[in-house]
Amino acid sequence: MSREIIAILRGLPPEDAIAVTNGLLEAGITRIEVPLNSPRPFESIEKMILHASDQALIGAGTVLDTVAVQRLKDIGAQMVVSPDCNPDVIAATKAAGMLSYPGVLTPTEAFSALRAGADGLKFFPAFKLAVDGFTALKAVLPQDTKTYAVGGVGPGNFAEWKAAGITGFGIGTSLYKPGQSAKEVAANARALVKAYDEVAL
Question: What's this protein's family per the entry (predicted)?
């Protein structure tokens, strides 16, 4: 089962990249992003790709420009996640053969992202939009649009977001905080997967 959970490893140092990746995979999380405002992020991402690209979808978050997109292509990244909707970044990502998940919050941003070729929409910060706001917005989106709630989402509200029709979730601090051991991250991941499976199956 490929769970629609994207692990957001903000602050991950390269030294911990392999061990944390193994912990996530063992728990059943196979979509992993390292935000580019982490320490030496390209080094972490490249290590993870070399180690587990056949088992996981690995890429970067907080991607703000096309220069970063090219660098990610060069190291074999598979997805690009951004906090904003930048059509140039989306177009460059798709031209490079990677999946594009831009951040949106309004109908204008959502449709701009889709027109630019986005593979899915990252609703960020989701807690500001809230479930009722997402429900209203989803009503006008193409039915097959993949949607992800990021920011203020977790096991406590998985059920209501899934009931509203969200595709999946991006999980950050409740999964990983800088300084946590791979063992702690794996335990967090197992708890998240259990909660996700209870509402997704």
Answer: Belongs to the KHG/KDPG aldolase family.
Q: In the annotation, is 177 catalytic?
A: no
H runs (alpha helix) in 28-82: 41-52, 66-74
Given a contact cutoff of 8 angstroms between Cβ atoms, the answer to whether 21 and 32 are in contact is yes
Output the pLDDT for position 2: 82
Catalytic residue among 4, 47, 122, 162: 122
Q: Which phi and psi angles does 127 have, rounded to 5°?
A: -65, -25
Identify whether 160 is a catalytic site residue.
no
Compute the distance between CA of residue 43 and CA of residue 195 in angstroms, rounded to an integer.
Answer: 32
pTM: 0.96
Q: Per the residue annotation, which of 33, 46, 47, 162 is the catalytic one?
A: 33
Helix, strand or coil, per DSSP, at residue 17: helix
Question: Tens digits of per-residue pLDDT, 161-175?
Answer: 999 999 999 999 999
Axis crossing angle, helix 41-52 with helix 17-27, rounded to the nearest 10: 50
Which residues, 6+ apart, have CB-to-CB distance to 70 below 8 Å?
92, 96
Structural domains of the chain ordered from first start? 5-200 (3.20.20.70)
Q: What is the mean pLDDT of the chain?
A: 97
